[in-house]
Every structure is written in C-alpha cells, then in structure tokens.
User: Fold these one by one.
Assistant:
Number 1:
Amino acid sequence: LRTGALKILYESLDSDQNIFKMLRQVFLSVLLMSALSSSLPASQYNHPNETMGKPTFGRCITPNGRPGSCVILQHCKKLYSLLLNQPLHDVNRLYLSQSQCGYLNRKVLICCPDQNSTPLILTQATVKPIKLEQGFKKAVILDKIPMESTKTRKLPRPSKCGQMTSSRIYGGNATKIDEYPWMALIEYTKPYGRIGHHCGGSLISSRYIVTASHCVNGKALPKDWLISGVRLGEWDTKTNPDCEVDVRGEKDCAPPHIDVPVESAIPHPRYDPNSLNQINDIALLRLKNAVTFTDFIRPICLPLNDNLRTATFDEIIMDVAGWGKTESKSNSNVKLKAELVGVPLEKCRHIYSPQSILLDATQMCAGGKKGVDSCRGDSGGPLIGLGTTGRGRTYYFLIGIVSFGPTSCGLEGWPGVYTRVGHFVDWIQATVEY
C-alpha cells in the first residue's frame, strides 16, 4: 500500500457487523406483525393526514402511540423532513426505524401521524433531537400492509466493496487499467441524437451510482441534455477494449466497457441549483439493469461506520480520480488520479466567504495544490479514502463527491469543495430500492 494512504483502524469485524446491523434497521427492518396480503383501497382511509391526496395503505399507531396512516416515506412530510435534517441523531434514527410499516414496490412505507395529532417535530429547522417518550415501541399495524422480503442487502459490506484486485506501485498521474473499478462516466443525450460524457460518479451497488446533484439538475447543465446511461469498466475513452503493457512487457487487456441505461435520476430534494453554496450536492442514478461485478467493475463502500460518518479528514491524504470531465470540458482520455490533503472546514470557509459562498458541515474541502486537485477528477466523481477492518482487510470508501472549486481548477491556495458523503448515508439508505 502506498505511503501516506488513509488507514483507519476500526473495531473488530464483529463490531462492524453490529454497526451495520444497527444502521440497517433504519428503513430496512420489516414488521412481520401482519401476514402478506393485498392492501385495502386507499379510499377507505379518509382520515385527516398530512398526506392528503397521496395513497395510503392502512391505518397504524406510531411508535409513541399516535394514530396515523401507512404511506410511502417521501409522502410523509414530517418524517421525511426529519430524515433530511442532518446529522440524524440516534433517537430520531430509532424513531424512523420503529415507524416502518412495510414495503410497496421496493419503496419504504412509514407510519405517518395524522395531521390533527400532537405535533411530532419542530416546524423550524433544528439539529436538536425530537423529544420522544422513553421506551417507545414499534408502529402497530391496524390493517394488512404490503410486505416484501429484506433478505437482499441494499448495499455491500467491505468484503464485497471497495476492492481492487492487484497490488499496485503507486505514484504518477495516470491510473493502471483496473484501478478504481467503481468509476462511472455519465452519458448525456443531446439534441440531434448526439452523445457525450460530462460528469462522473461512483458505483455503490449493482443498481446505483452516486454523483453530484449539479450533474442532474444543475444551473449550468443545458436543459435539453438528458441523462441516458452510465459507462462502467472504462479506462481510455479512445480505445475499446483497453490494454496496457505490464512490467514484464506483456499486454494486459480489460473486457470491453459496458454502457448501462439509467432508469431514474434522483437529485437530493433539498439541493438548490441556483445557490452559490451548493449544499446537498448529491444525487443517485438507478440503473435499468443490475450490473455484474468483475475485476474492472466493482462498487466502492459507503462510510457506514459511525466513526467514518463523523470524521473530519483534516490533514488526511485522500485520492481523487477521473477523466477531468465537467459540464463543459474534458481534460484526459485516460483515467487520472491525484493525492489530496484534507483542509479544515473553518480554513476553507475563510477562503470562500469573500466570494459570498457559505459552506456548512455537510461539505468538506481538500487540495489547494497548483495544477492538481480535482482537475484530475470529474464533477460528481469520488474523493476516496482507504480503510482497514479489525482483521486487517483494507477497502476503499467514498468520503466525498466533487462539487465545485475555483474557475481555474488546481489554483494554488484554493481547495476544492466536496459533498461530505457521511452526512447523507441515511438519505441514501432510505432512497435506494431493491
């Protein structure tokens, strides 16, 4: 492993599994209190509810004893707002987990309190946890709710993600042919049938890509460009298949890259394309078909461990990789890489505030070295860390997403700004479907 690579020693793997189990409870644990059956018609549930006009799937009692209706999570303003209010406190995470009342077409159903019940959360944005009675219980289902099996894990564990097959001699700007196999190029269909790749992303499962929201609905993105697919297994955009000569002088070739259609693009609901601050600059792309993992196509891990979700990564060496693609330009045919050092948020705020850009805790900064930074990365591409489990297994995980920087990338003293992925793990977990 390269000198200075980010290594974070976690608890034992057993402890990691407990953490995963705890986090998985949020929107993943199915209440098996009622048998599988068809839901009753929504017209039977004309109770005053904040989801008026949205389909409901039965009556229920919330974890703290209030009457409610079982609805799709995104249709319950109170609980969905709670989810989006990061950081998500433990008591709120538990409440959301206990509020789940089923699944419908791979979407989470939640017990949403009736409109005339006692207010559940504050009306103004707050980072304080809501006050709940101690010892609240799981939602009680009064009607038969659609259920689905949860035996399929939404996101892979470190043993299945963040892996690169071969040992590498690190150094230089160009990557090897199988480095960073989670890298994706986002395909846009333009007028007159033209195709172009203008943003990057990271594969996090067989069906999902994480990218920047500005690559989906950004202000600078032409309105007649449509995200139509992603390219995986790419290295040199000018050749297919890609080949390189190894240290023994032998030709090493990868399988042809694959182009996968995008089924849907999901920008973060609180992303404002017109804001200079670019807060919540994160989006998900759901692929039309599940991809098969190979040595050249593999997912990167998310920072599911609480230690990683809250780490600042100040003065830590991280990697950025990509083809230097943005909404308006491309720098390289071959996938590039660079090492960046994390910059404290307060220092970064001081640099950007004269430009009327106000950064918050959901963002982070790295780099500031002339000619490097995310000039070698892509808009929406990954800022990458290297972690180690208690049993010595190393894996790469997604720390940040390339968001923005100075107009001239790689400007001395101006670090790039990244979306801090750890703050959005709950949103990702709640949004991805099977």
Number 2:
Amino acid sequence: MDQFMFTAVLHPQYMDSVSAWTITARKNRYQSLPMTPLLTWIFSIIAAIMLFLHGLASFSEEVARIGGERLRLRLHKLTQTDLYGALTGAISTALVQSSSAVTSMAVGLAHNRTLTDRGAFAVMIGANVGTTFTAWLVTMKIVGLGPVFVTLGGLWSLIGPRPWRPYGKVLFYFGLVFLALDLISQALAPIANSPALADWHELLSSPVLALLFAALLTALVQSSSVVTGLAVLLVQQNLIAPEVAVWLIAGANIGTTSTALLASTALDINSRKLALLNTGLNMFGVLLFATLLQPIVSMILNLTIATDQQIALVHTVFNLAAATAALIILPHIWPVLKRWLNRTP
C-alpha cells in the first residue's frame, strides 16, 4: 500500500486509481457499521428526551438568572406566614418549572439564615403545588408552536436589544421544551400497537412498582417535571393507562426530594434535617393519595374530559390536598419539629 501511494505521487496518472480505492474503502468501512431501524429509534427517543431535559433545565436557569436575586432579597418578607410562604413556593416553581431547584434554594437560604426554617418549609409545601403546572402545560395543544418559540426566542436573544436578550433565551428554551415533547410524541407513535407494550404495561400496573420506578427515574434525572411530562405524554399516546400514570406522578413526588437531600449534604446538620423533612412531607402526600384520596382519584378518572387532562387534574388535586393538610397541621406540630431541627447530635 505504501509503495503504491509513493508510486502514485511520482506518477500522477495513478491518482484516479488511488481516489477510487479510497472512496471504496471508506464506503465499505461505513457499511460495516449499519444503523438498524431499532437502533435509530432508540437513539431518537434518547435524543428527544435529552433535548427535553436540557430545555427544561436551561429554561429554569434563565428564569432564575433573571429574577432569582430579586426573589432571594424578598423571600424573607414573603415568608412571614405559612400561607404566604407556600404561595411564594408555588408561584416560584410554576415560573421556574423546577420544584427541585426551589426546594434546594429554600434549604440553602435557611442555612445562611435568609429564611427561617419554618419559612423554608412553607416554601417547600408550596413548591409541590407549583410543580403541577408542568402537567397542564403538556396537556395544552401548543406543542406545535415549539418551533415558533424557538425561532422567535433565538432571534431575539441574538439581535434584540441587549438588556432584553435574556428574555429571548427564556422564550427559546420554553419553545425547546415543547419541540422536544413533539419529537418524543412522534418517536413513540410507532410502538402504540407493539406486543411488547403489553408486558411493559402489565409490569407497571402494580402501583408499588410504578411508584418505585418513577421515584428512581426522577432521582436519576433530578427533575419531577420531566417524569410528569413524560407520563402525561404517554397517556396522550395511549401507551399507558391513566391508572398507571397517576402512580408514576406520585412516585415522581418522592424522587424529586433527592435533589434537596443531595444539596444539603454540603451544608450543616440543620439543613440536612430540613431536607429530610421535605422528604417526609412528600411521603405524607403519597400516603394521603394512596388512602383517603383514592375515591376522588377514581371520580376524576371517570370524568368526560381528555385523559391527559384527567392526569393533570389528579396531580393538582393530589398535591393541593397534601399542601392544604400540611398547612393546617403545621402550627400544631412545628414546636416538636423545631426542637428536632435544633437538637445537636
């Protein structure tokens, strides 16, 4: 081969032969690594989910960058009462689209005494309500507008007035979330009638398994919004039953507490206890969902509305009921919780 190449350099008439051989060799090399339809489909699903994750995380970061500092400065005043603290947590989470980010921020602000422990806990209670906005966003038929938001936001962030460019980024990433949802929906469509889907559905038909699966997946991706959005999307595509989706959402409520737990490991013992308290709050909500709220859940799932709206409504009622119960009993149990938080090991 080396001798042939050397000869070709000395004799230009051989160059055409070398080029033809090179092209053939490259073609054979790439043909030896075929991309099967199954592999293409798997990578399409993963890529769309990664796009969804990146869009949601970046949207959260941009919103926090725009209003995060002002929110931190005002949080102390906004959390003077339990109700105001919960409302602050709910609105912040609905805007940022990340209960994990809001609860982690609450733990951090309690650590540096910007927030009281009780104020931080009230924010956590509200964050669980604010996160239900994600499910409603997915049910809205604006997925097709994703490319429009991406285009307008991208242009605005590049050529808009400099002080307003961050808002263009927010619009860009907001559109990216819905563009990714559209791609996921298209990628999932071919498996709607797959026989393997029946086995998957049978596995998740167990509430305990669905709960654990969603909790682990949420802890892995560090976002309950992602798991909730996917659950609603799977219901829209008739890939899972609404009865399965509600348990996936309940599991996501537990898994999302892992972010605050991880964030608290770098802080003091009091912050770690506060993060544990957040986990206990969400487990209390799931217990409430599994017992007292089941008749209401059954009633909602029998309403004559779209199945994805049923899931969003169950999610809202579930978290709103848990938050209301927590706010009612908080004044009565806080003295005990405060002693536990302040106790040194």
Number 3:
Amino acid sequence: MKRQQGKGLLALLGLGAGVFAWWKYKNLSPEQKNKLHSKVNDVGQKVKDTYTEVESSVKSNLDSLKNSAQNVKSDVKTDVNELANKS
C-alpha cells in the first residue's frame, strides 16, 4: 500500500509542478515569452546537432568494423586456401 501512496504523491507533485509552470508561463510578458521560445529553440537545435554528430560517428565506426571484419574474413579464406593447396 505504501508503494501506491508514494506513486500517487509523486504524480500529484508532478501535476502541481506542471500547473505552476503553466501559470508562470501564462504570466510572462511577451518579451520574456519570446526569450524563452528562442532559448528552447536553441537547446533543441543543439540536441539535434549532437544527435546528428553521434549518429555520424556511430555509422562511421560501424562501417570501419564491417571493413575490418571483411578484411579478416578474406585473410582467413586466403590462409585456408594456401593450407589446402599445400596438402
């Protein structure tokens, strides 16, 4: 029962924080709203740029690993063929 009460209190706290944030935003001046909008847009752009950077890095690392695996595979095939020809 205590676990459910804790979750309920946490939900109530979250709801209260949301209502407070909405009230605070509602009472901002148009200048402050524009400033907040630009700040949110800047942060969003930074997140997008970071995501693109990480995605590119992961993709290049994956391609590098694929090439390394392909090289090892061809080296093993060559070694197997050389051993088969010696026998």
Number 4:
Amino acid sequence: MNKNLYRIVFNKARNMFMAVAENVRSQSKAAGQSTSSEIVSSGQSLVQEKSFHQLWHVKALAASISLLVPFAPVYAAIVADSAANAANRAVIGAGKNSAGTTVPVVNIQTPKNGISHNIYKQFDVLAEGAVLNNSRTGATTKTVGAVGANPFLATGEARVILNEVNSTAASRFEGNLEVAGQMADVIIANPSGINIKGGGFINANKAIFTTGKPQLNADGSIKQFTVDQGKITVSANPNSKFGLGGNNNDANYVDLYTRALELSAELR
C-alpha cells in the first residue's frame, strides 16, 4: 500500500467515521447486499499521495443543531457548466413533489464505460431534494413521482454518476438525492467544499463526497481524485439530529475524500 495514504469511511456497525488505509474497501450495509462497482480503474490509486498531507481535521462529534434555516428556492440549485463539453453537460429540468414544490430533475449525460460524467457551475441538493434521471424508459420516483425516459441513455444506464462542480462556492447537501431508474453509485466532487446538513440518498448503491478534482482515463474510467484543498462539513438540519442519513439515506456505504473534515452531528 502507499505509505501515509488514508481515507475516511463511515462504519454503519459502529455508527462512526473511521480512518482506514486507502486500499481498504468499504463494507456494505448488510449481508447479501451488493458491494461496490469498480469506480476506479483496476490497479490505480484513488487519490494522489502528495495531496494528502494533513488530510482532515475532526473538530467535533455528535452535537445537535436546532437553528432554523431560511427557505431557499430550488430553481437555480443545480446549474450545468456552459463551458464544459457538450458530452458533459447534463440537462436540468424540473418536477413537482407531493407538496407542489419545484424539484430539479437532471437528465444525466451518456455514460462512457458505465460512468456518466456531468459538470456543473452549481450543484446544491436543498431540502426539497433532487433527482438524477438514470432511466432510459421512464421510472417512478419517491421524490417527484413519474419521470420520463432520459434520451441520453439510449445505449444503457450509468453504473456511476459523477457530478463534478466548477465553482468558488461549496455545494450544499440538505435533502434527498434520488437516482431514478437503475441504481447507481453517486459522486459529488467540489474542490471548494461540500456542506452536508441532513441530506440523504434514495436508490444509490455507494456515495462519495470529495473535494478532489477527478482525473479520468481515456476510456472514461476514473483514475483518481487529486485533493489539495477544500473542506467537508457535516451538521444536522432543524428536523433531525443526523447530519447524514437522517433523511431516508439508503446508500449502502459512504466514502469521504477531503483535505479537512468537520463533524458536528450524529451519523447513521
């Protein structure tokens, strides 16, 4: 293994994050459930060693937050990067949840080697949630009900949905992020940081949060994440003591790759 190279993995059995060697696999949520698909190409290190000096700083654990958060509209919560290649620009539409609130619905781009690589100027999952459409025939979701077929998936659905953010602002993760259609691994990568506040996943096998810059191979597989900046914070929302997983989180396991990590809420 590479000396002094670590990552943080959430251990569901112990209800806590643990620092483990970079090449150690996450454990699935329960016996008999599927394990991770190969997100990175075989034989490749997931992170660059030079980027992981003093990788994270854990400042506090298991604190409750009771402050109310003002309402924020969702209309511009997810914005594609117009400067990205067309093959990496997702199309963002909208649906309505049961309360009649507008929710972003993202038609992810055509996968290459099973990985749909989407680049955004902003990627925030607010309290109303968001949907990643990974269905080529249409699907029924918990978040917005029925969604139509994603025209970018004519050759097949994605195994991994990579959401790369080019922004000077941290991403917010405060609601459910649902994968419509075929279950997939979900990655959110924002070098400017990610603020997790009570968010969760629906129909996601594995979830990765990272402040690294993804590096891809020519065949579309992920070579590594270069992490040299950014912080991930995990705090509770007003309606739950949990920072991650208190909002219908059913991702089988969660990985965090970041320069600094601040925890101030319980996790499950």
